[in-house]
Write a structure and sequence with these properties.
Layout lengths: L7 H21 L3 E14 L2 E15 L4 E4 L2 E13 L3 E4 L4 E6 L4 E6 L6 E6 L12 E4 L11 E3 L2 E8 L3 E5 L5 H25 L6
Antiparallel strand pairs: 1-2, 1-11, 1-12, 2-4, 3-4, 4-5, 4-6, 6-7, 7-8, 9-12, 10-11
Helix pairs in contact: 1-2
């Protein structure tokens, strides 16, 4: 039986088709989102004090988990949340946490999850009046600081923030177009490997 040879162009074209299908699937379903809130803060973590230290909270989300509480009020559960404090290091939040946005009040922030719903960091910005917690936003410079009702459990112990200064808030959604590049690279690489293997099986061309 004769086997039809598939050229590099055909394989690459097939890879683009697959990537396009992935893009459609990705746009129709949820996407990951990374939210970072950076500021200078004072407080303690696990009993260790810090003062005016550069602090970054990072929350990884899946937008499929977004909850609509009321028109213009959303939150999304963190799949992983960490805090990095200069001079102390990075810690993972143990308590369940969420990122929230209230379009009606133009604020967003980081909070403990239900049932406590205790806000840890709340920021105000006009950008939050239309943010739907599904798309990228920022970086924006918040105009309000800290609200904390209770301590938050982390891998280093309880986090207690006592002071907060202005910083930045940013939500990033990875570009789905990167799927096209990956699929095209894989398809082209596979085609090149097949061509190289065929040449090796044939051996050198006969001399005349």
């Amino acid at each position: 039986m004769r086997v039809r040879r598939v050229g590099i162009a055909a394989v690459a074209a097939a890879a683009v088709v697959v990537a396009s299908m992935l893009l459609v699937s990705n746009s129709a379903s949820a996407a990951p989102m990374d939210v970072t809130i950076s500021f200078a803060a004072s407080g303690t973590i696990g009993g260790a004090p810090f003062t005016n230290a550069a602090t970054t909270i990072t929350s990884h989300l899946d937008t499929a988990a977004r909850v609509v509480f009321a028109p213009g009020i959303y939150d999304s559960a963190s799949t992983l949340a960490t805090i990095d404090i200069a001079g102390i290091g990075s810690s993972t939040f143990i308590d369940a946490t969420v990122i929230f946005v209230n379009n009606n009040n133009s604020n967003a922030g980081f909070s403990r999850s239900s049932p406590s719903l205790s806000d840890v960091v709340v920021t105000d910005s006009p950008a939050f009046a239309t943010w739907d917690l599904l798309t990228a936003v920022g970086p924006v410079d918040p105009t309000r600081g800290l609200i904390q009702v209770v301590g938050v459990s982390t891998s280093r112990g309880t986090l207690l923030l006592s002071d907060y200064s202005s910083g930045t808030f940013q939500a990033v959604v990875p570009e789905p177009t990167s799927l096209c590049c990956v699929a095209l690279f894989i398809g082209t690489t596979a085609a090149l490997r097949r061509r190289r293997a065929r040449r090796q099986r044939r051996g050198p061309a006969p001399q005349r």
